[in-house]
Amino acid sequence: MFKINCSIFSSSYFDSLCTVNLMFQSGHTLSIYKRAIFYLIFTPNHFRKILTQLIISIVMKKNTNFHLFLISLISAMGGLLFGYDWVVIGGAKPFYEQFFQIANEPMLQGWAMSSALIGCLIGALASGKLSDRYGRKPILIVAAALFVCTSIGTGLSPDFTWFNIFRLIGGFAIGAASSLSPMYIAEIAPAKLRGRFVAINQLTVVLGILAAQLVNWLIAEPVAANATAEMIRMSWNGQTGWRLMFIVMTIPASLFFSLGFILPESPRWLAVNGKRESALKILTKLVGLDNAKIELQAIESNMHSEEKASFKQLLHPSLRKVLIIGVVLAVFQQWCGINVIFNYAQEIFMSAGFGVSDVLLNIVITGIMNVIFTVLAMYFVDKWGRKALLLLGAFGLTLIYALMGSVYYFHISGSFLLIIVVLAIACYAMTLAPVMWIVISEIYPNRIRGIAMSVATFALWTACFILTYTFPLLNKGLGAAGTFWLYGLICLMGGIFVMRNVPETKGKTLEELENELTKK
User: Fold this and answer.
1) Could you give the C-alpha distances from 465 to 31, 155, 202, 375, in angstroms and in order?
2) Could you tell me which residue, 182 or 509, shows the higher pLDDT?
3) Which residues contact 196 (CB under 8 A, 6 or more apart)?
4) Which among 71, 35, 88 has a CA at the least distance from the CA of 212?
């Protein structure tokens, strides 16, 4: 519980809060949720403003990287929206399928779940070329505007065609944000902290996933166990609830769009494009004048021999190794199979004997674990290193999927499956989910980083499309057991690839990595 020394404040605004705090400390047993609500209701606005300023001042005294953290957090809001938009459809699925009457149409069901991925492919490819030409900042702002558009448009869609059109628009925003946000953070973060700062983007992704799961759970009204398809279609969930699940995203999307204008441009992009003074000014704010001059000199020394960025340049022998590593890691992160748990959680849990309402609660539980283990990843990624975490994730998921397949094979249902799903998500969240983005944002040279990231992200969303679209087919052909055993085999192969080919990148500047990984 918060402990505030009332004597240091002269304002009478603090009297009621201090009284409440003493009440809590003297034995009242209000839950943490009720305490939080009590503070929000009875704490005056004036006090909240002063308290916020006090917290910020404390953080800034203890952490000289606060400015960098704030910039990273704003740019990582693209990850938050990516996570929300990616997962919200899973909770809305039982209801919009009945509304559009596609519940018995597997092809249309698959298209509804995967249509956004087409937009992701286009957004991923376009964002690289556009960000290399116009800068990282303006493309992030455009992505934020598209998130606003898709949240409103999808929620108000009058028919299935418009629903998919706005899902395509949302996919374009996801593709752009998923490529640009980690790349932007990698370009502004110091080498010793780059891993955890880039991992902020993955943290916001899982927070977006959790937010979508919570919103779905809170909005959806309980569904009777004996509810027919027509009853669901005509219910509040089937007519209105699923729409609100999408529209809620308008709030963080609008905030991201507004805050995007205060972001600085990437100093590495500025330097590469001949804007030396602007680059030095931003680097000075981030790392101090002396370090800024050193970093700028390293950037300039590496860029003079580079040709103008192009897709053709990626085929140069000096870049072949890093291109293959980035693409394989991106594909592996998807084909490890975790995203089917998020996208098809309804089918997975219902096949284990859970009802619709229980499914939504179970999904929230998995989302909470996703956030917890992503935070752990932020702590360990600059201590254990990228490669160690990648190997832990690959071989850990191999064992977990072997167990999950066995559960389905022997028809074991109930809470045991939930525990295994949570283990899988925890393993993924601490390893493959954040570390893949960190590695591919580090290994490419400055001048072609935007294009190279877009290619890796394009490969990721292509793999994700294949994964999402084929899961119902695999599930029908191989059964749930065979499907997850197949994912386990892919994880085993991915671990072997990481062991043999992926270098350790922790603690090195982007320029040092460029010199090590590319042969001039």
Assistant:
1) 43, 23, 20, 27
2) 182
3) 378, 379, 381, 382
4) 88
Nearest to 176 by CA among 478, 420, 460, 399: 460
Task: State how far the Cα of 440 lies from the Cα of 457, in Å rounded to an integer.
Answer: 9
Check: pTM over 0.85? Answer yes or no. no
pLDDT at 35 over 70: no
In angstroms, rounded to a whole number, what is the distance separating the alpha carbons of residues 123 and 454?
9
CA 214 – CA 220 distance, rounded (Å)? 10
Tell the residue number behind the tokens 């909005």, with chain if given.
219
Query: Tokens at residue 238, please?
Result: 């089937």
* pLDDT for the residue numbered 342: 65
Question: CA-to-CA distance for 297 and 291, rounded, in angstroms?
Answer: 10
Please give the structure tokens belonging to residue 49: 């403003």
| The amino acid at 66 | F
Q: Lowest-pLDDT range, 50-54, 134-138, 304-308?
A: 50-54
- The 8 Å CB, 24+ separation contacts for 192-197 are 192/382, 192/507, 193/65, 193/68, 193/382, 194/382, 194/438, 194/442, 195/381, 195/382, 195/386, 195/438, 195/506, 196/378, 196/379, 196/381, 196/382, 197/68, 197/69, 197/72
